[in-house]
Amino acid sequence: MSYSDYSDDDADERCNTSTSRSHTELKEKTDILDRYADKINLDVHTTHRITKDKALRATVDQVLDPRTLGFLGKIFNNGTLSRINGCVSTGKEANIYYGLNESTAEEFAVKIYKTSILVFKDRTRYVVGEHRFGEKQSKNPRQMVRNWAEKEYRNLKRLYSEPLIHSPKPIDLKENILVMEYLTRGNGNPSPKLRDYNFKDLESVINYYHEMLILMRVLYQNCRLVHADLSEYNTIVHEENLYVFDVSQSVEPDHPMSIDFLRMDIKNVNDFFSRIKKINVYAERDIFKFVITPSNILFNNADDLKELDQEGTKNFLLNYLNTLNLKSSDDDEFNDEVFRSLHLVSSLHNIDERDFSKFSNGDMDTLVDLVGSLKIKDKDVVKRESNNTVSGEEQVDDYSDVDSEIGKCDFSDDEQPQSNLKRFQDKEEKKMHKQQFGFEVAFLYD
Ligand SMILES: Nc1ncnc2c1ncn2[C@@H]1O[C@H](COP(=O)(O)OP(=O)(O)OP(=O)(O)O)[C@@H](O)[C@H]1O
Ligand SMILES: [Mg+2]
Fold first, then answer.
1. 193 Cα nearest atom in ligand 1
2. What pLDDT is attached to residue 166?
3. Cα–Cα distance between 166 and 191 in angstroms, integer?
4. Regions in the chain scoring below 70 on pLDDT
C-alpha cells in the first residue's frame, strides 16, 4: 500500500496511534532504563565510572531499544553478566560491548545486533540457500536479526568445538544479544586485530599467513563452513594464536554462493599479506585447491593425518603449503585474475539453463585442472580436441574417477613434489581460451 492509499482520516488515526505508541515506547524505555541504567555504560571503552546520565544519552544511538534492554536484563538476571562497561566497537550491523561479571571477575564480549531494518537488507543472500535457515527466512526485521544472531551463535559453537581452530567461546544468546568470551590483552583492552598486530619479524608474518590458510581449510573440511568475510579485521591475535570470529554470515559448502565467498576470502587474505605486509603469496587457485580438496585426494599419505595430534596435523598441512610455488610473475597475477573470473559451479544443480546449453554444445571449458596435474590436463585437452558433445552428467561422472587421482601430494619420504603440481600450465592456451569464450566453468566435487 502506498502512502496515497490512505485517506485523511486514516492518516489522523495513524498519527494518533503512532503518537500513543511512541508514548508507550518512551515509558517502557524510561522504566527499563531506571532498572538497568547504572549497569550500562555504552561509551567508548575506558575505565571511567558510569553515570545514569551517560547511560540515558547512550540510548539515543538506538542500539538499545526497550526490547533489547529487556533481553539484556535477562542476561543480568541469569547471573552471566553484572555490568556493561564500555563500547569496544561500533559496526554497521552490531556493536560490541565490554561485559563484566563483578563477582567472578570474568570478562565478556557482548555483541548486540542492531534491529534497524536498513542495515540488514543485504543479508538475505547469505541466508537464502542455507538449509539450516530454510524455513526461517522472514521479512520481519526482528526475526531477521534474531536469525542472524542465532546463526552467529551456532557457527561460533561449531568453530569452538574444533580443536584446530581458535575462536572466542560462545556463552549465551538472547534474541539479538550474543555473549562470548572476551579476548583481552589486559586492563579490559581487546587483543589486537590481525590488522593491528605488531609482527615481530618477517618469519612471524609468514607464520600467520600460513595459519590463515590452514584456518580456511579446517573451517571448510572439519567445520563445513566458509567464513565469507575473512580478513585481517575479523581475526585477532590473542596469546600469540590466531582467533577467528564474526561468523554470522558464514555459510555451509552446499550454499549456492559458498565457492564465490571462498574465493573472496582467499583474495582478501592474499591482499593483506601481499599488499600490506609485503610478503610473497601463493596463487589463489592453489589456495582454493588446498582448502576444498579432501585429504584422501590431496595427500597420498592421508592416513597418516588421522594419527596426528593437533600440532602434528598443522605441521602436516604446513608441509603441503611449503610445496606450493609462490607467485612471482605477471603471468601469476594474470592467472589469479582468470581464476577469479571463472564461473565455478559445485554441481550440475547449480548450472543455469543458458550455461547448460553452452556447456552441452561444447562451448565451455571444463577446467578439471582446477585441482589437477599435467595428467589431467592432458586428458582434458584430449576431450576438447575430440570436440565432444557429451551431456553434462556424463562429463561430470567421467571426471569423478580421475578426481581420485588428481593432485595427490606425497611428502612422506622427503621427495620433492612433482614440479607440475606447483605451476600453472599452458598459460597462453588459457589466455586464448578466455578471450574466445569469455569465461570458463569448473566443476568441483563435494
Ligand atoms: N570476542 C571478542 N573479544 C575481543 N574483541 C572482540 C571480540 N569480538 C569482537 N571484538 C572486537 O570488536 C570488533 C567488531 O566485532 P565483529 O567483527 O564481530 O562485529 P561487526 O559488527 O561485524 O563489526 P564490523 O562491521 O566492524 O566487522 C572486532 O574487530 C574486534 O576488535
Ligand atoms: Mg567484523
1. 31
2. 98
3. 13
4. 1-30, 32-33, 44-63, 117-138, 345-446
Distance 235 CA to ligand 1 centre (A): 9
pLDDT value for 256: 87
Copy the grid coordinates of residue 395. 562429463
The grid coordinates of residue 357 equal 546449453
Query: pLDDT by residue (tens digit) across 272-307?
Result: 999 999 999 999 999 999 999 999 988 888 888 888
> Rounded distance, CA 161 to CA 350, Å?
31
Query: What is the model's pLDDT at position 422?
Result: 36
What local confidence, expressed as pLDDT, does residue 248 receive?
94
Q: Are 401 and 354 in contact (CB under 8 A)?
A: no
The reply, when asked if residue 183 is annotated as ligand binding, is yes
**Ligand of minimum distance to the alpha carbon of 245:** 1
Span from the CA of 233 to the centroid of ligand 2 (angstroms): 6
122: DSSP letter: G
56 annotated among ligand-binding-site residues = no
Q: What is the reported pLDDT for 131?
A: 62
**CATH number attached to the domain at 33-189:** 3.30.200.20
Among this protein's residues, is 229 annotated catalytic? Answer: yes
Q: Where do the domains of the chain lie?
A: 33-189
Q: How far is the CA of 437 from the centre of ligand 2 (A)?
A: 38
Catalytic residue, chosen from 12, 38, 43, 229, is 229
DSSP letter for each residue of 153-192: HHHHHHHHT-TT-B-PPEEEEETTEEEEE--EEETTEEPP
Confirm whether 260 is a catalytic residue: no
pLDDT at 376: 31
- Give the three-class secondary structure for 61: helix
SS3 79: coil
The pLDDT value recorded for residue 16 is: 52
DSSP-based three-state secondary structure for 443 = strand
Of the candidates 65, 246, 336, 403, the residue annotated as catalytic is 246
Instruction: Give the Cβ contact number of residue 390 at 10 Å.
Output: 15
Query: Residue 178 CA: which ligand is closest?
Result: 1
State the closest ligand 1 atom to the C-alpha of 184, by its place in the atom list counted from 1: 4
